[in-house]
Amino acid sequence: MKLKSLDEIKKLKGKRVLVRVDFNVPLKKSGARIVVADNTKIRAALPTIKYLLGQGAKVILMSHLGDPGGKAKKNLSLKPIGAALGKLLLMKGTAPADWEGRKGLKKIDEMKTGEVMMLENLRFHVGEEKNDRKFAAGLASLADIYVNDAFAAAHRAHASIVGVPKFLPSYAGLLMKKEISVLGSLLAKPSKPFVALIGGAKISTKISVIENLLKKVNSLLLGGALVNNFFKAAGYEIGASVYEPKELKTAKKLLKNKKIVLPVDFVVGDFKGKKARVVSVPKKKIALCKKPYALLDIGPETIKKYASIVRKAQTIVWNGPMGMFEIPKYSHGTIALGRLIAARSRGKVFGVVGGGETIEAIEKTKMAEYIDHISTGGGAMLEFLEGKVLPGIKPLLK
Ligand code: 3PG
């Protein structure tokens, strides 16, 4: 995949560069103020922003935040993000501009070399998600060059992602390039054995990635509530465990694939984490648990089994927790494997982790720094690993 990259732009001095970033970050209350709860995505965009500033460009940032549905919502303003970015860049916080108003346009017009400004939440406008041509043209009119650094939003065919590049010379930012290069290498030439761990709640969102990864990996270890579908499909009673009736047929088909590895035991308990016990998977398809109990984490034997496979891997990719890890009693599978992946990643094997909850889990291990690549993409990473050319990447190809 050959990309038009921002370091190929010859003259940036004095140019206005419109940069699509993904600053869709979690927020939290701090007294009366709303502040950024996790600035990982903002930090990830810094190399591109700093590069452009270093080249003397005028940087206009744009992002979505949450899902305001085309209306301005105070609690989804990019204001706290401007403040967080200001701190990271050691600059004055960049207040989001009402770029459609005369005041905002004047501000953009008067920008000086080496200045950064940010537009207000793109999804305050209906035109963004509808990929409205006029809206995209309006955005494009603010700048001379377009850079897309929002890998995490590259699976969305929205105006700021696929519309704007129709009007401006368009390039991939440094984060976009890095994500594509790392995730692309997983699909193209992974060192073997290649082991993938896929967890999380909904199998319907992971079927395509499971199917594509099965063509590439040596083993695919499954965990999280999505495995409930496999046990239900195999004829076990799974009590109150969540599953997707529509996906049982696919799960049954996937059960035949020898690369798929399923848990051999579970932590069974109630959803509040009050009562929990370990249950081995019996050969006979009888009850694994009964209502109100559910399968809420992989058990100790499964951790051992998965660990022995992970230990032999040369390439590891992990997306989705192994259990309901927000409750400490059901967090052991996720944390144990997270620690192992981090420990193995450090210089020995190539380890890639992605997805909002998985990143949260890896942060809990306090070993995130050892992972070779933590993708900023949740849905985007999955769709990329499905083998799709994401709509946001297409306009950036040579
Ligand atoms: C993400 O957080 O995965 C991206 O910012 C995409 O957000 P969206 O699912 O609201 O489009």
Task: Report what the structure shows.
With 398 residues, this protein is an alpha/beta fold. Helices cover 33% and strands 19% of the residues. The model has no long low-confidence stretch (mean pLDDT 94). The chain binds 3-phosphoglyceric acid. 3-phosphoglyceric acid is lined by residues 22, 24, 67, 152-153, 156, 378-379.
Describe how the helices and strands are arranged.
Blueprint: E1 16-20, E2 27-30, E3 33-36, H1 40-54, E4 58-62, H2 79-89, E5 96-97, H3 102-109, E6 116-119, H4 126-130, H5 133-140, E7 145-148, H6 159-163, E8 170-172, H7 174-188, E9 194-198, H8 207-214, E10 219-222, H9 228-233, E11 237-238, H10 248-255, E12 260-261, E13 265-269, E14 276-280, E15 287-289, E16 294-298, H11 300-312, E17 315-319, H12 332-345, E18 350-354, H13 356-364, E19 373-375, H14 379-385
Parallel strand pairs: 1-4, 1-7, 4-6, 5-6, 7-8, 9-10, 9-17, 10-12, 11-15, 17-18, 18-19
Antiparallel strand pairs: 2-3, 13-14, 13-16
Helix pairs in contact: 1-2, 11-12
The structure holds 3-phosphoglyceric acid.
Residues 22, 24, 67, 152-153, 156, 378-379 line the site of 3-phosphoglyceric acid.
Summarize this entry quickly:
It contains 14 helices and 19 strands. The protein has 398 residues and is α/β, with parallel strands linked by helices. The protein starts with 15 loop residues before the first strand and ends in a 13-residue tail after the last helix.
Strands of the largest sheet, in order across it?
5-6-4-1-7-8
Beta-strand share of residues: 15-25%
- What characterizes the major β-sheet? 6 strands, parallel
Q: What is the CATH C-level name of the largest domain?
A: Alpha Beta
